[in-house]
Amino acid sequence: MRKTPSEIKLEDIWLPWNFCRVLDREPLKVHKWLRSEGLLAAEMVCSKCKTPMKLNVRSKDAEGYRWRCQTNRGHEASVKEFSFFQGGRTPIQVSKNYFLFQSVQFSLPNWPNTTL
């Protein structure tokens, strides 16, 4: 039985079908799944105010989302902060293509040496 995107876990992502069901969706759903699997921070605390931050849509940002302090709207943080993607210049939506390449590379059989 196929899993729904919310049931697919990180260890299942190597199957191309699962990859597409999870990561080939609109960015907010992709971000939500990445947060649920610990690849992005699920919550953020402002480093200056020490108060909770909220995930907001930000069209000017390459990721499309930013953490914004609820106390001081001028305090923002990247969605990549404290994550698997921190320090990378490539947007998450582009990085997911790397995951697809890796999942296909490791899941396809070795065709030249396969007899049918």
Features:
116 residues, alpha+beta, 3 strands, elongated
Describe the structure.
The chain is an alpha+beta fold and 116 residues long. The protein has one domain (10-107). 29% of the residues lie in helices and 11% in strands. The protein has three helices and three strands; from the N terminus they run H-H-E-E-E-H. It has helices at 16-23, 27-36, 92-107, and strands at residues 53-57, 65-69, 76-78. Strands 1-2-3 form a three-stranded antiparallel β-sheet, with no helix packed on it. Strand 2 and strand 3 form a beta hairpin. It is elongated. The relative contact order is 0.16.
SSE layout:
Layout: H1 16-23, H2 27-36, E1 53-57, E2 65-69, E3 76-78, H3 92-107
Antiparallel strand pairs: 1-2, 2-3
Helix pairs in contact: 1-3
Please summarize what this structure is:
By secondary structure, the chain is an alpha+beta fold. It has helices at 16-23, 27-36, 92-107; strands spanning 53-57, 65-69, 76-78. 29% of the residues lie in helices and 11% in strands.
Can you write the helix and strand succession as a string?
A: HHEEEH
How helical, in percent, are the residues? Answer: 25-40%
Strand content: 5-15%
Compute the CA-based radius of gyration.
17 Å
